[in-house]
Design goal:
The protein has 308 residues and is an alpha/beta fold. 35% of the residues lie in helices and 19% in strands. It has helices spanning 11-24, 32-37, 59-77, 92-107, 111-114, 116-141, 156-171, 302-307, and strands at residues 43-47, 81-85, 87-88, 151-152, 183-185, 190-192, 206-209, 216-219, 223-228, 236-241, 250-255, 269-270, 280-284, 297-301.
């Protein structure tokens, strides 16, 4: 050594050298053809839970990488043919949102200004930038995965595998298409997962801003309206709702069978003001209808029936 040993441990003097040497010697590379020759009981394969390309790694990724790296190295030292395969995830809507915010801030443009193809190019630019950055961060940690086998959830092989899996599951009737209530995002112009929304409970009339609309709209206001009986339009059943607009999809009105006000009306039909030919029936539901809440009559629309 040309210089005295440092008094304290300096990771930059050690880790970078080992990291570069490990990858230069290809110590962690695993050949698929060689793996197929190995006995199954002596093969260990683990996939890296792919980080989203929406940003960079955080402390949680570091903990995960340390644990998985320890497991992989242990298996390797035990003589297992070990492959720890890394990759990144496209995180569809989340990545789109990040890129949209970026171009709006930097270029004052929206995805509509670019058009589909040009905006996809922007998203791929983001993926190549942040995907490589994420892999670089993992390598800085000194983890022992095979970077030559790095995958991306939207690359050709993975996309083909997903399509194949969906078709096979559909053919076996394990996977099927159904109609469900979805969360529509006014900003992204698409349906989003329950995990991507924040529920807001409104107990009193409240004015809230709606994305892409000027001003605020009132929420939590109860509106009363009535449906006349088909046999005798002079008689009506009153409804109280905070979602008046959903009456366009109404197909029934539910009441409690013990409610003296309505029990004699169960089975009768009502007239819909906009759709006179639609069958709108009064039904009984003693579980979901609280006769002491509101008017004791609950409107039921097609979405509710599909969801339940």
């Amino acid at each position: 050594m040309s210089q005295p040993m440092l008094a304290t441990y300096d990771p930059t003097q050690v880790e970078f050298a080992w990291d570069a040497w490990w990858y230069k010697r290809n110590f962690f590379h695993v050949s698929a053809s060689e793996a197929l020759k190995m006995p199954r009981e002596k093969t260990f394969v683990m996939l890296l839970p792919p980080p989203n390309v929406t940003g960079v790694l955080h402390i949680g990724h570091t903990l995960m990488a340390a644990i998985q790296d320890t497991i992989t190295r242990y298996k390797r030292m035990k003589g297992f043919f070990s492959l720890w395969e890394p990759g990144t995830d496209h995180a569809g809507i989340a990545t789109q949102s990040v890129v949209e915010k970026k171009v709006l801030k930097e270029e004052k443009k929206t995805r509509n200004d670019y058009g589909r193809e040009k905006f996809l190019e922007k998203i791929w630019e983001w993926k190549h930038s942040h995907g490589n950055q994420i892999m670089g961060q993992f390598k800085r940690l000194g983890v022992s995965f095979d970077v030559t086998n790095t995958y991306f959830t939207m690359d050709e092989k993975r996309s083909s595998a997903v399509t194949h899996a969906f078709v096979e599951l559909f053919d076996k009737n394990i996977l099927y298409r159904s109609e469900r209530i979805v969360n529509w995002c006014c900003t992204l112009k698409t349906a989003i997962s329950d995990l991507e929304i924040d529920d807001l409970e409104v107990n009193t009339p409240t004015f809230l801003h709606v994305p892409l609309h000027k001003g605020k709209y009132e929420f939590g206001t109860i509106t009363h309206f009535s449906y006349p009986l088909k046999d005798d339009p002079s008689k009506k059943i009153e409804i109280a709702t905070t979602r008046l607009e959903t009456m366009l999809g109404d197909v029934a009105v539910a009441v409690n069978s013990k409610d003296e006000r309505y029990k004699h009306l169960i089975g009768k039909e009502l007239l819909h003001p906009f759709f006179p030919d639609r069958k709108l029936v009064i039904i009984a539901d003693d579980i979901l209808v609280d006769m002491n809440f509101g008017t004791g009559a609950v409107k039921v629309n097609e979405c509710c029936l599909l969801f339940n």
